[in-house]
Amino acid sequence: MTLAKHDFQLNDPKIINGWAMFDWANSAFALTIAVAIFPAYFEGITAHEVSPFGVAMYNTTLFSLTVAVAYLIIAAISPILSGIADSSGRRMAFMRFFTTLGSLACMSLFFFDGENIGAGPMLAIGVLGFLIGTAGFAGSIVFYNSYLPDIVTEENYNRVSAKGFVLGYVGSVILLIINLVVITFPDSFGLADSGTLAVRISFLTVGIWWLGFAQYSFVRLPKDGNVPFDFKILSKGYAEFNKVWQQAKQLPDLKRFLISFFFYSAGVQTVLALASLFASVEMEMESSELIVVILLLQLLALVGAWAFAKVSDRIGNKSGLMIMLVLWTIVCIGGYFVAGKVQFYIMASAVGLVMGGVQSQSRATYSKLLPAGVKDTTSYFSFYDVLEKGATALGSFSFAFTGQLSGGMRVSVMALAVFFLIGLLVLVKVKIPHTRAAVKS
Questions:
Q1: Integer angstrom CA distances of residue 184 from 79, 111, 288
Q2: Residue 224, helix vs strand vs coil
Q3: Measured between alpha carbons, how far is residue 215 from residues 26, 115, 132 in Å?
Q4: List of domains in the chain
Q5: pTM of the entire structure?
Q6: What contacts 220, CB < 8 A, 6 or more positions away?
Q7: What pLDDT sits at residue 89?
Q8: What is the DSSP string of 164-175?
Q9: How many CA atoms are closer than 13 Å to the CA of 402, on its beta-carbon side?
Q10: Calpha distance 356→297 (Å, rounded)
Q11: Cβ-contact 79, 85 below 8 angstroms
Q12: Poorest-pLDDT segment among 22-26, 177-181, 327-331, 361-365
């Protein structure tokens, strides 16, 4: 990656704060749109059986497939994007593009309104708005993650990575509480008898929040270089993707970690994307109940992110991740048997504690396993993100497939335990060195 030709200091608090603040900005989409409000809203205003493109399926299946397609698209184009950014030095430009694309798509969900929607233009607004918004969110993360090894030294990876997630949780919870108050007490805001307007306003506020606070990060992060664009670099990303894999194969522990990461990410990301839909359909939770559960989950995730950063510093990243994967497996198996709301609250609390920790420690562990002296960190983190997005697509497809066959979501949740078990078994063989190894170029 070619950064702008000006001096900036590693571990600079201003740059670190600017980087972490991007999590504050875009996590509002991850919480309100992808998790807390939109999934249940989508299920509530659409027909039980919908027919997009004339193909009949459950509305929950359509939602799961939309998640899968969004992440599959990003997984497919990420190598191209990283190739462009790595060769032209336009990392910031692509963060801006995907942030703008995603936030505007999020705002478009304000117009997704109706009752018993089964097909037609209104269904398309909901599906495409969510699809493009998710793609914008996922695309911006590719470039956001790649800044970490460039702005801090290795001993600070865990702390700074956790700081980003913590700010993300705090910011997203603040906005969700504001939206919860408006949705719960619409009369106080002049929204009496306005139908779904209060809920749809929350989609608008998320887009504005996301786009607005991202500007703080854009001002503080290192600026792009100024290298002329060459269309030949469109294929460079796939070449870099292959190069990263070839280098990873020279480092057995890095290769094993990536394989483990792929499988357990299929479980983690699918649970995060579809948990609220499960609560709405299987637990018959109302929107207000669901939002309270999500708030509890986010607060516990904040605690979990910091706690597992401390645990990993004490017993090592591998041991910390293994503990979390065991807990994730138990949660998925328990999801099949959960019978009441109290049991669901307990299960959601467990998810919250391991949710932030597994994401933060995975990113920090990968940073530690990168080859010594690597400069093109965007390519390496693009590879990491392609695996994560591909894993999310795989997990969501499997969730949709098992749900469509079984007619419910319990079997789908339990099936996700397989992904965690595979990831755990592979992770057992990973050794995290004290110093990073070099590879042949």
A1: 43, 20, 7
A2: strand
A3: 11, 37, 20
A4: 13-220+230-427 (1.20.1250.20)
A5: 0.77
A6: 14, 15, 17, 18, 19, 21
A7: 67
A8: HHHHHHHHHHHH
A9: 14
A10: 10
A11: no
A12: 361-365
